[in-house]
Design goal:
Length: 453
Amino acid sequence: MLPHKLLFSVALISSMMYVIQSGSPSDEDVFVPTHEWQRIGEDQAIPAGLHVKMDMTNGGKWAKLMDEGSNVGVKSTAIQIKDIPSTESESQKSDDNKNEKLDIKELKERMKKLKPEKITDTGNTQEKKKFRSMEEIKADLEDLQLKQESDFDVMNRVLSIATSYHETTDARLTALEDIEYYVHQVDNANDFVKINGIEKMMKLLKNKQASIREQAIHVIGTAAQGNPSVQVKAVELGVVERLMEMLKDDNQALLVRKKCLYSISCLVRHFPHAQNIFAVNGGFPLLFSFFTNDPTNKLLIKSIQLVSDMKKERLDIQSLTKSDDSIEEKKKQYNRFNLTAILGANNWCGKLVSSLKYKQTDVKEASVEAMRNFLDVCRDEFNENQTIRHIKDLLRLQVAMNEWGEERQLERQFSVDNFLDADRLLQLATDGDELEEYIKQPPYVEETFKKEL
């Protein structure tokens, strides 16, 4: 006999099954055997056909695979082994297995805390987590007690800054610039009227700072541009007359006067009633004065464009073949003052011809644009030889500036074209594509015949 230790080896065969604890074992409690002896854990199931031994001295169970040839008839039924009381004291067994039990329990607890990784089909879940939803952003803003301002709220807020004498000039100018940006939108411009924005801008026209006056006028013009509701309100408040007074005032800064003319144009375009108010209050003689009293020609150019636009509106309304009540009413409104008679009394045709002599190309181009709209009343003056020469000079300048070809190509066309009247020349002078095509077309047939002869 062996001293102090007894090893008892047991060979399990398929016909024997020792069940200590009922119930089917789970996968994690199954013992995985090898050809080496391994300790069997508590409540750990082992498959059938293993070589099992029990340590009767220190306690514990050990198992390994059977040697080859010794496991005939073994079944794969798993068994579950429970602690068997040994003759040794519980304190001695506890000392041997304490660390093992603690390790197993700790491992099981940690395994429970691990969460399975979720697999999505999109493959970009991690990328999406970088961005927050709109609901999350709104919730954060609510926590910070922040609210998204509407355009109406913004205009109200900046309008109070623009009209406050306690604010600095820079702050007020910035506020006016913000308002001008918002009133580009029709709905915002209509809301601007509702909060008495036009009235408040009118008060700023008396401000000592020219920059404040300029920007306030700019806001009025932008709000009125293409917006009948604002145009009507501004006319009711006498804005046209007030701006004309400032435009006449030579003591006003040039930038202020330019903005006055800009806003007047926005108020009267496509608004016959406002045009009539402009005419009654001496608006056209004021515009004609800039032909001789405008060193920079900035006001002159805008004056020519404004009168030309008024004429173009009448040509467009008269050319409509379909008629209804609204069109007939608009025709009546345009006829309340005779634009042609007013212009004829002030030698408008002659003024346009004289403007072609200006050195500034912008003045010449504004003039030829206007001349096309006044051909029906000024054709005779425009077809005079001197006027034709001035228009040709402008065409030569345009060709040279745009590098469409050599000037001799243009001269060649002039020399062989027998149909160059004012109508044709003005069309070429106001349509770049037409002019480019004209100078690049082949010579006329009769010129080719001369070369062949």
